Amino acid sequence: MASDSVLAGLMESAPSLAVSRRDRFVVFSDLHIGNGESRDDFLLSSPLLMNALERYYLPGRFTLILNGDIEELWRFRLAEIRRRWQEFYELLAAFAREKRLERIAGNHDAELALRGDAFPAPRLLEALRLELEYGSLLLFHGHQPSRFLSRFPGLSAWGLRHLATPAGIRSFSVSRSNHKRFLVEKRIYAFARAARIIALIGHTHRPLFE
Question: How far is the C-alpha of 50 from the C-alpha of 32, rounded, in Å?
Fold first, then answer.
């Protein structure tokens, strides 16, 4: 399948980090941060997440990995997001200063890759490999099996921001379709099993372990 070659290329090109038993990691994805108004998915969960980052994960010396769709750039402009959530970005910067922040792009924040903007992380990745003593763990957002989303991320964003949002049409994202979620998860699981790795994704907005 075409998605197999895409995922194989993703795995081969991903930078790697050697992980020891002493290292600690926490992974978040799909925050879909907006402008702080009613359509902002981050609004209700932000106090809990920022409190956990500030009081537990930062002093606990965790490496924070943001696994895509952190900003909701299909609906909101980056400048207004960063202006509204300055306190959150200051927390991320604290991880970055200690060299414990990694960012991976998703489909809803793919605009950052086009801009070359990883703020406040030192780099923006498509995938990251953690090399463990028992094998490899590959982190990526999970939209890559979709040929359309991988090749034309800007087209989907433009349509949602300028057509669907003004008309009050909800996003037809994979997270709202059980059929689409199942196909994405099935393809990634089959690839990970064949490659003998662990794959950790976001994208489908639901917990699943195989």
Answer: 15
